Amino acid sequence: MKKGRYPVYVKFPGKLLIVGFGSIGQGVLPLILRHIGIDRKNISIITADNSGKAIAKKEGIPFKIEPLLQDNYQTVLDRHIGKGDFLLNLSVDVSSVDLMAYCKEKDILYLDTVVEPWLGGYTDPKLSITDRSNYGLRETLLAAKRKFGKGPTAVSTHGANPGIVSHFLKRALIQIAKDTKFKHKKPVSREDWAKLMKDLGVKAVHVAEYDSQKSNKPKKIGQFENTWSVPGFHSEGILQPSEMGWGTHEKHFPKNGHRHKGGCDASIYLDQPGARTLVRTWTPEHGHFLGRAVTHNESVSIADYYTVKKGKKAVYRPTVHYAYRCCDVAILSIEECFGRNSVLQNEWRILMDDIVSGMDELGVLLMGHKKNAYWYGSQLTMEETRGLAPYQNATGLQVTVGVLGGMIWAIENPREGIVEADEMDYERVMEIIEPYLGTMKGAYTDWTPLEGRTSTFEQDVDKSDPWQFKNILFS
Ligand code: NAD
Q1: Ligand 1 centre and the CA of 22: distance in Å?
Q2: Above 90 in pLDDT, residue 4?
Q3: Over the stretch 227-254, which tens digit does the pLDDT of each residue have?
Q4: Is the dihedral of CA 434, 436, 441, 447 positive or negative?
Q5: Which of 130, 229, 257, 319 is 20 to 30 A off residue 6, Cα-Cα?
Q6: What are the Cα distances from residue 424, in Å, to 44, 137, 416, 439?
Q7: How many whole angstroms separate alpha carbon 318 and alpha carbon 298?
Q8: Which atom, in ligand 1's list, is nearest to the CA of 112?
Q9: Which residue segments constitute the domains of the chain, with CATH numbers given?
C-alpha cells in the first residue's frame, strides 16, 4: 500500500460518532479517513477528558467533552446520531450492551472493542464475581443477541484481542490442516470450524503476546505506564478475575478455580487477578517466556465457538486464554499497583512518541496437534508503525486496524444484528488489516511447558500430557 494511495473499501453516507478518544480513538481516526468514504463533516467525537483534543483539531473533527452516563446516554446520543448512522464506542466505563440496545432501537450501526459495564461495574460489592467477569458480561451480550435477532449490525469486541486474533486462529487451523495433510471440506459453519479444530487434535490455544516496546524515559514512581488504556488494563488485569476457556482434555481442576452458574459453561475463573496469574507460553521472536492470564472476552468466545457437543454434553473444547507479556514499564506498574492494595495510581502515561525500540508480537499459539505447536500472528515494530500510520504505537495499530476492518465489515453487512469476531468473514477482514500488521509470521515449535523444567523446588507436573493447564500455570 503506497503512501497517499490508500484503497477506499466502502462508502458511508451517514454520520459517525466516536465515543471516547483515547489511544485507540486517536489512532483509528486517520485510518477511517483513509479507507472509508465518509465526509469529514459527518464525523464527531464525544469523550470524558481532554486527551486527543489537539489531534481532533488538527484533523478538523468536532470534539466535545460530554461523558455518557447511565442516566443521560440516550439524550446525549439523540443529539448526535439517528437512523442510518454509526456509533463507534472506544470509551471505558460505558455499557456496551446498553449502547447496542440503543442502536438496535434507532437503527444505527455499532462497534466496540470490549464488553464494558457502566462505571463501578468491576468493583460494585453487590455484584457476584460472575457478574464482574468477562464470562458474565458476555452472557449479557448473548442475551441481547438472542432477544434482538437480526437488525442493524453491532460488532462486539473487534480490536486486536479480542478481535482479529479470532481471524488469525482460522488461518492457523487451515495451515495446520495443510501441513499435516489432513483432508477436510472448506469450513463454513461454526460446527465445521469446531470439528476441524477437534479433528486436528488441538488441545489448548493461547493468545500469546510479547510487547517489547521501550521508552527513553524510565518509569516514574507512582505512575501507571502502559502501551494502551491504563484504566482498561487496571480493570481487566487487577480488578477482574483471571479467566480461561476450559478444555475437555483437562484432568485437573485448579485449587482456586470455579465454574459459573448458568450460561454457556465454556470457561472457568480463578480466585485471583490475571495480572498475577503467570503462565508459560511461546512466541517465535522470544521463545518460551512467562505471560499473564489476564481475562479477555476471546478466552470465553473462542472456547464457546469451538465446542463440539453431543446432545447437551460438550465432547470437545480447547482450553483458551491470554498469555500476555506486557511491556517492561507495565510490569513495574502492576507490581506497584498491587503494593497499593490494587488502588490505581493517580498518574497515568501511555508510551507513544518516546518509544525508542521494540515490537508487539501478537498471535495465537495452537498446541497439542500432530506438529506439536504452531504460532501465527503479527510481528509489528514501532519503527514500522511510524511508517504506516500516525498517532499510535505498535500495540495501538494492531487494535485500530481491527476496529477499521470491523467497521468496514459492518457497513458491508448492515443487517446481521449482534456479531462476535468468530462469526465474521475472516478473509475479508484479513484483506483489510494485513497491510498494517508488519510481518505475518507462522512458526512451528517443539516447545512444551514441560521443557527444561529443572528446579531446586519440587514440581507438581503431569508428564502424561504436556498440554494440561496445570503444566502451563507457573506456581
Ligand atoms: P484510553 O484510556 O486511552 O481512553 C479512554 C477514553 O474513554 C478517553 O477518551 C476517555 O475520556 C473516554 N471516556 C471515559 N469515560 C467516558 C464516558 N463516560 N463517556 C464517554 N467517554 C468516556 O483507552 P484506549 O486505550 O483508547 O482504549 C479504549 C477502549 O478499547 C478500552 O475499553 C480498552 O479496554 C479497549 N481496548 C481494546 C483492545 C482490544 O484489542 N480489544 C485493545 C486496547 C484497548
Answers
A1: 6
A2: no
A3: 999 999 999 999 999 999 999 999 999 9
A4: negative
A5: 229
A6: 27, 21, 10, 23
A7: 12
A8: 30
A9: 10-156 (3.40.50.720), 164-394+436-472 (3.30.360.30)
